[in-house]
Amino acid sequence: MDDQRIIRQVREGDSEAYALLVRKYHQDILGFIHRIVRDAHLAEDIGQEVFLDAYKALPRFDLDRGAPFGAWLRVLARNRCVSALRRRGRTKLVAVEDAPCLAGDGPGPDERLIHREEHEALAASLAKLEEPFRSTILMSLNGELLADIACHCGVPTATVKTRLFRGREKLRRLLTASFGGICNERPF
Question: Which residues of 19-47 are buried (b: 16+ CB within 10 A; e: fewer)?
């Protein structure tokens, strides 16, 4: 079945017919997106958004113009990629050693040694923590507000809260597994 016939069916209320278009173009669009953003997870997210956008905009797709549906999908995908890359460009990544709560020394030699060991343990655990948890925790440690982190990452504030909660839990497990009980003494 050709694209125009499927699009007409979708417009007539057969939402199941849209799955045929998704199956036909899914791999091509994901490959196209991945070549632009160079991130498999981000490409998958953008791909879902593109197919959702296309479904919502399908009534406005001009069948008489003769433009191929696949080309139209690529335009939608390119626009989504540009937006995602702009958001990513505004994201401020913080190095572990630059987080203010990790910098500084205690007044005495013993406290300095303990602090340095804690810092090294936390830095090593943070380095093992996968994204997006690591960058979210580091931005929080850098003093950024939840709303600012959400804006930088292009996600809702609730997602930032979830990432912080899950990231802290993962960090506690990493610290406990690698370095014993120091994670119970210091909040992060």
Answer: ebbeebbeeebbebbbebbebeebbebbb
Spatial separation of the C-alpha atoms in residues 22 and 151, rounded to whole Å: 30
Phi and psi torsions of 114, nearest 5°: -60, -45
**Per-residue pLDDT reduced to its tens digit, 25-45:** 999 999 999 998 888 899 999
Contact partners, residue 169, CB within 8 Å, separation at least 6: none
- Check whether residue 60 and residue 139 sit in a common domain: no
- Eight-class DSSP state of 15: G
- Shared domain for 159 and 111, answered yes or no, is yes
Give the range of the structural domain holding residue 169, as residue numbers without chain letter.
Answer: 96-184
Look-up of token digits 């950024």: 144
Look at the pTM and tell me if it is higher than 0.70: no
What span, in angstroms and rounded, lies between the C-alpha atoms of 123 and 157?
A: 26
Query: What is the domain count for the chain?
Result: 2
Spatial separation of the C-alpha atoms in residues 171 and 151, rounded to whole Å:
24
Residues 16 and 9: beta-carbon distance below 8 Å: no
